[in-house]
Every structure is written in C-alpha cells, then in structure tokens.
Records
---
Amino acid sequence: MAPIIVIGAGLAGLVAARTLQKAGKKVLVLEAKSNPGGRVQTRNINGFRIDHGFQVLFSAYPAVQRNLNLVDLELVPLPLSAVIVTALGRELIGDPVRDARSLLGTIRARSLSMADKARIAILVARLKTVPPWKLLIGQDESTESFLRRLGFSNRSLETFFRPFFGGILLDRTLSSSARLFRYYFRMLIDGPTVVPKGGIGVITQKLSEGLDILTKSPVRKYETDSKKIKVFTDNSVFEAESLIVATDPKEIKRLTGLRFTTEAVGATYLYYGSRINLDTQSRLILNADRGIINNALWSSNVNPELTPNGFHLLTVTTLGTKRSTDAKIDCEVRDELAAWYGDNSVDKLDLINVEHIPFAQFKQPPNFVNLLPGNNTHDPRVLIASERTSMSSLQGAMESGERAAAHLLGDTSGMSRVRGS
C-alpha cells in the first residue's frame, strides 16, 4: 500500500502524521530541514538551551491535551502574575488565588485602579460561563474597542493590557480580534501556563517519536493522476495515495497554488547570559513605558535547567522584525535594561543570540476568521495543514493537523470539530 505523505514536520504536520498513524495508516513525513519541529525548536548555544522565540505552552488548549502527555514533558509552571515596569518603578499584578504572593502587590498596584480590578473579576466570571470555543464566534471588534466598551481605563490599557497581550498576540496596538483575546484569556484562566524543562522543542520531539521522518528532503513538486500521487525530492520520487502539505504559506502556495491573504507578524528576541543573577524575579516583566522592549523573562529563574551551572538566562522580546543591525538593537535593549538594573549590572550581560522571526504569527484583526481557508485543495486527495486555517497558536496548528487527517480518514467528527475545541 502506498503511504500517505506529509510534507513538513512542523507542529501541524507532526500531529497530522500521528493521527493517521494511530488510525493504522502508513505515513511518511518529508522535512526539508535537518531536524523536525518547524518553529517549535530549542537549540543548544554554548550550553544554553535557547527556544526559537519566546514560547510558552497554554496547558488548557484542548488540542494540546488530546495530542500530548503533559506528564512526559516535565512541565514547569510560570507564575500567573507579572511585574509591570514604569518610570515610577515596579508593580506586581497577578491572580492571588494561584499566586498567593501577588496578593499584596495586586491590591497596592496603581497600574490598575480598584474599578479596573473589579472589571477584570467580572470579565473572568463572564468568560467562564460558556465553553471556550464559543468565545471564538459571534460579533467581533478590536481588543482595544472591547476593553474600552467594558469600561477599562486608559491607564490599564497602557500599563497592563498592551504589554501583556502585546507579547501574546505580538500586537501592542490591541487591534487584534477581541474573540481571540477572550479565548486566550480563558486559556489563562483554565490551566497553568508552562514550559518544558528541556525547552519548548521537547513538544515536537515527543510528537516525532515513532514517525517515519526523512529530514533534509525538500520537495520540489508533486504530480497527480487518477491512481496515485508522485512526490519529487532532489534525490527520490515517492508514490502516495494521499498528501498533506504542512509547510509555511510560501511553500504551500508554491506547491499547491493556494494563496493566503493574511499578513505575517514578526518579532525579534534577544538572549543574554550572566554569571551574576541580576534579578531573582521569576515572573514575566512587562515594559509599560515606550521603548524597544515589550517584555522580558529571567528564564533561568523559572527553569534552571536551561543554563550551564553558574549561569543565568534573560530572554527579551521586541516587536517587529529586523530594522537595524543586531548591535544597534542590543544597544537599545541594554539602554532600557540599564534603567531597570543600572549600567554596571547590564555590563555583566553577555549577548548569546539574536533571533529575528519575520513570521512569528499572522495578523488576526477583527473578523479574520472570514479570510481563513479550509484544509481542502482542488484535489480531494491533497490537504493542507497549517495554523493559518485556524488561529496563530499551538492550538491552531494542532487542530489543523487533526482536521486534515480527519478528512483523509473520513472521520466526520474530526472534520466537524469547531475551532478552539
């Protein structure tokens, strides 16, 4: 029997392949790069485990719970709170139920007025009244419009919502879909935000186990006739009964002719090592002032296994793609960090890596769902699997992989599963 071929060993492709294999299908995965994982990667640089961008796992994602054994990942939870840095100093805001040490700081915090804190409590209660997937349907508007309509103050938007959800949606303007904001907020409520001890790449390592994956096998083209599909790499020709194209949008367009209308959103990440622990804080640090830094995390305070003995790791997120040289970006980041920690302390930081990710997410404005393609192509034997058929997240990539596999299996329940469920 000819196998089903999956082109691309990113998150969507791996989930599609595993779903098919569990159903008894013979599956071959062709990956252009030297290792599987796509954008969910962890690299070792001079003994530091560096994730591809700043990535965390929302453990409440339904697709995550279906496809991963969370115990096997050895997960470390992040505190459900954040430190807000302003020109006046630092404030601590969090969920005192799950982070008791944030209670006093949350009460005292000026970034959120007492009315804003009450509005958050009301919003949480409202979001919990319906299944999470229902938060992705209905009328849509921008996140900023939604928050202002609920009465949140301008100060709360500037000091908390913009930097916090700017880090999640890579959109500090809060112009992204309010549906998506509500869904992510619900995921934060329903389960801890976590990171694997071995880095985010452990997720795709686990999904790769037991699959037949050929790396360094870029696909040049495929051809179809009434009986079979031929897939051509540089060195081989493979025959398949069906095909799933689970690559980036440019490759999907090149191979299938399908065009995505959504735009890419980029970000730049800087990773610093230090022998001296400049900050004992394990919470996310949000920059409420205007500047290049959106948020930062002392990753080694959360997960010491990311660094060599005696070292500490700081991960800094800036929004947008490369606008200048790495040296200039580093200089700008250091200037802002100096305001936090002092010039002498910042001099002790060694730049380990700068990661420019032109496509970290795709733009998700209000009603973006109306522009989403399905998994189908012109040929019923050829499917696509990509977060761009759903939402830009681990949930979106996984559920797209599941749905593509369901089409090939004739699994009506899998094909009809709604977004976010």
---
Amino acid sequence: MGDIFATGGEDKRVNLWSIKKSKIIDLATLKCKYPVCAISFSLDNEYFVSCTTDHRAIIYNLKGQIRPKSSFVAHQDIISSARFLFSQR
C-alpha cells in the first residue's frame, strides 16, 4: 500500500490515488458528511484517518474493503491535523 496517497476537501470526499497510475483507485472514493480538513496514514500503511469539519476523526482500515473502523469526537473545534504513533510491545 506504499504507492498510494489521499486527498480530501470541501467536496466531502476522500480520494485514494495510485501514484504509479496517476489516477484515483477504483472504488476508493469515500463520501463524508462534512468537508475533509486533514488526512494521515499510519506508519505501517494499514490505516488512515480523515478529519472532518464536524470535529470528527474517522479511522479506516486499508486491508480488504476500505470501511470506517473507528470514529472519535473529542474537540470543540475543527481538527486540523492527525498523526499515528505506535509503541513497540
């Protein structure tokens, strides 16, 4: 999965793109209820998070069918950035 990137914006969509093919990956446009203001991939490229203007962060699993895994609302304002941190166990 290291050959993809994501875009999101006011159109309430997250698009996953193939770097090699320079186009949106089939079935990889995710519709959101609110505009997207931040996106981040996990270090292992298994997950990504999108943040929307309704103060929500949604984590997606990139393995198999791309669907929301978890959703968090913990801010009173727009989330402008998100990062994954993994600890070694």
---
Amino acid sequence: MTTTDSSQRHALRMPVLFVGHGSPMNAIEENEWSRGFRELRGLVPEPRAILSISAHWFVTGTFVTANEAPPTIHDFGGFPEELYEVEYPAPGSLELAERAAELVGGGSSALRTDWGLDHGTWSVLRHTWPEAELPVVQLSIDARLPGERHLALGRALAPLRDEGVLVFGSGNITHDLRDAFRRLRSGDESTPGWAERFDAEVARALERHDGDELARFVATDLGRRAHPTPDHYLPLLYVAGAADPRDAVSFPIVGFSAGSLSMRAVLFG
C-alpha cells in the first residue's frame, strides 16, 4: 500500500499515544493496568500500522526495525516461565520503516533487522491489539541526544498521523526501579512526594502543550530523582513532539504501580 493510498483510507488524523507500561508482568496478569491497556483500543481509530518508541531500545544511534516478521524479545530476567512463552507475532513493515527513517533524517538513521519488538511494545499491544495483525515498527532512542533533540524527532514524525500510523510511546513518567523494588519488598507501596510532584508537573506541561518544558524536565533535580536514567521518560517526548497544539489532551490511565512508578497514559487528539 502506498502512502497516498493509506492517507486516502484514513481521512481522520490519527491521535498519538503514550502508555506507562510498568512491570512486564502486566502482559500476563489481569489487573487495573492490563484492563486499562485493553480499553485504549476504543479511544483511537483503527490504525493501518504502529510506530513504537519503547524505552527498552535505548542505544547509541537512531535505528528503525525493518524485519518482515520482528521477533518477540524477552528483555528481562527473573520472571515466571509463562512470561517468556509470550509471543506477539505482529508483522513488520519495510514501507513504514523506510518512511520513518526518511522523516527523522535518512543520513542519521539506519534500518536494522537485529532487533524486534521488546516488552515495552508487546506487553501493552498484546492487550490493546491482541490479534497481532497490525504491522509494528520500532524506532530506537539515541542515548546521546538531549531532550530537545528527541522532541524534534517526534515533530519530524508527525506526518505519519495523516498516513494512518499510530505513533506510540511506551515508558513511564516516573521510573526509579530501585525505589519500586524496595517498596515491593517492604510492603510499603505508598507513593512518595517526589513521584507525585513530577507526575503532576509533567501532566500540567502536557495539558499546556509545552514541549520545551517537557524536554527540560528530565535534566532538573526532580527529573533526575524520578529518572536515574532517562530511557523511560524519553518516549514521551516523541509523542509530545508528534502532537499538535490543537489536539485535545486526555489521561486515560492514571495511578502508580509499586508506589513510585507512574502508569499515566497520555492521548493527544
């Protein structure tokens, strides 16, 4: 299918979506988060394909998966065998991979076939689109770039919205695993003040469509407290960049897992 054909089929502009994916166990558990993932499908038009920016492809460089059949990557350890048996056999799309690489700058991006769909992508999509029939392509996050560059790359991807593609970011607005594990071990899953403050400040900036402020947040003292490493925050910048100031902003999922992991989902459009 050509870009023109797909644009004609999708007269409505696609929204953009960020989801807090949390624990890999959400892929197989029946809980408030997995139920929230399922309900997301009813909030967006059916896309022709999905471009996913996952916190778990955090590397040196900007790459796009070009696999015809991207493998399901189990990029975690110490979980039940049932989780390692999960497969999400969505097809890839060379057309979308080439288009995404073109938009973000063909000279600074490359197609890759040595990655696939990591759990940041499939742990959500197996609930939202369990049929695994939609083509899914992943875009990596270049660990060397500052926040404003990630925001700019998201802006570059905005034309995909008019081509039937859902730009989908997966991470968490707060993500300090050491703190979360400590709370789980102790049985104290109360939400600390720093997590509530950072989550609330980010939500307010999202409602204002203040991309520049969002790009700066992760480098603040509070941002570094919420994100000892920025990988789980950066997918949000791609989604915010691809959004339009005219888009309505909503939060279809809110709350904290393990006390300090924000599970907030953000829908633009």
